[in-house]
Amino acid sequence: MKHIFIIILIICLLPALCFAVTREAAIQYALEKSEDIKIAYQKSENMKAGARELAAFTKPQINMIGSHMEMGDNAEENPFFETPERNISASIEASQLLYAGGRIWNSLDLEKNLYNQADLIYAFEKRDIIKNVKSAFDSVLLEQALLDILKDRLMQRRNELEDAKDLRDVGMVTSLDVRQAQLNLNVTNDELKSAQASYESALINFNLAAGRQANTDLWIPEGKLDNIPDINEILEKLMQALSGENLLDINSLKTKVEASHLNYKITQGAKLPELALVSSLKSSGEKWDNTDESWNIGLQLNWNVFDGGSIRAKTASARSELNIAKENLNKTRKGIAGTVEKISIHIKSLEERILLQKQAVKLSRENYEDARGQYRAGTITLTSLGEFNLVYAETRFILQRLYFAQRDVLTQAEALLGD
């Protein structure tokens, strides 16, 4: 009989065990199979295609044209000149830009820059995916912890109801305590159902963040919220990255400043002439084996001497964009430095608060246990016992939220590092 019970227990627990997932596994899945990572890849590829298009004018240009035309008219035939019945023609033109006021090499540099920006966009999207999965994962752990506390509190309320009934039966309290204990039990049961709904909602959000469907078997985050022992190492690493400006956000804006500078030089180069090597070959006639051919090859100079001020306006616009990019970089430097400082403050504050809250949980548990014994002895009222119960629950709620806040700060720090 004992073995049968163990087998049944294993079968009941098997589904939960099968769908438990670590945070690292959820992140890996999201980075491989989620729609968000596929969209991020396409965004990156789209930008790279735009970069190639921007620099296409620096490459050889070849154009081919061919035609076959049947011809006829209603004019009288001329005995001295035979009207052709068809015209067959073909031509090929090729050109290579040799000089464009610096726009050739600047455009090639801009193409490389945009490729780097495309890679950075992909890195940003990956960072957001990782951050969202981590936050959603930790949110489930928080809701699970709060749910467990309420389950424990529900058991306490049931015990209090039994205590009230026992005391009523021996005449130490009236039915008022029994009704109040039942009311406390009902309120806690309602809170538990609300917490269960919040937990299931967080579970769905986590699965969606990981790129899974919410209408199938859901993944359940593995582990529990607890104090993070090595969080100061992450802070130190973040400080070093900030001092060396080796952060994703700063590198991205540096790349954009470089792109704006290249674009400014390209618009300036439009004032200068273009020199190109051009060539063409043309063939036309009534039959393919009897055509007239012509060809040419040489240099072509094109200089837009005056365009009504269009180039000057574009140059001024490019200069403004460059200045904006520089100011955005300076602003971001200050903003990230402020964020890192706030993270440092929060980390130190949370460490101290967690230590104090652990003591509060220990003391409130001991107070509640003593208060329950005193209630059973008839020295305190049910109302006083309820107050001790509430304090014990609230201290545990606060501790779990502090653990969650600590993880949230860690997630922010890791996101700045690009992890």
Question: In words, what does this structure look like?
Answer:
With 419 residues, this protein is α+β, with helices and mostly antiparallel strands. It has a single domain (19-68, 85-417), classed as Up-down Bundle (Outer membrane efflux proteins (OEP)), CATH 1.20.1600.10. Helices cover 69% and strands 13% of the residues. The chain has helices at 2-18, 23-33, 35-54, 103-169, 175-209, 231-243, 248-269, 310-377, 382-417, and strands spanning 20-21, 61-70, 86-99, 220-221, 274-287, 290-302.
- Measured on Cα atoms, how large is the radius of gyration? 38 Å
How would you describe the shape? elongated
CATH fold call? Outer membrane efflux proteins (OEP)
Number of helices: 9
Q: Give me the strand/helix succession.
A: HEHHEEHHEHHEEHH
Number of strand elements: 6
Considering the protein shown, what is the CATH homologous superfamily?
A: Outer membrane efflux proteins (OEP)
Structure described in brief:
The protein has a single domain (19-68, 85-417), classed as Outer membrane efflux proteins (OEP) (Up-down Bundle).
Features:
single chain; 419 residues; alpha+beta; Outer membrane efflux proteins (OEP); 4-stranded antiparallel β-sheet; two-stranded parallel ribbon; 6 strands; 13% strand; elongated; disordered N terminus; OMP_efflux; membrane; coiled coil
Q: Would you spell out the secondary-structure blueprint of this structure?
A:
Elements: H1 2-18, E1 20-21, H2 23-33, H3 35-54, E2 61-70, E3 86-99, H4 103-169, H5 175-209, E4 220-221, H6 231-243, H7 248-269, E5 274-287, E6 290-302, H8 310-377, H9 382-417
Helix pairs in contact: 2-3, 2-4, 3-4, 4-5, 4-7, 4-9, 6-8, 6-9, 7-8, 8-9
Main location: membrane
Protein name: Outer membrane efflux protein
Family: Belongs to the outer membrane factor (OMF) (TC 1.B.17) family.
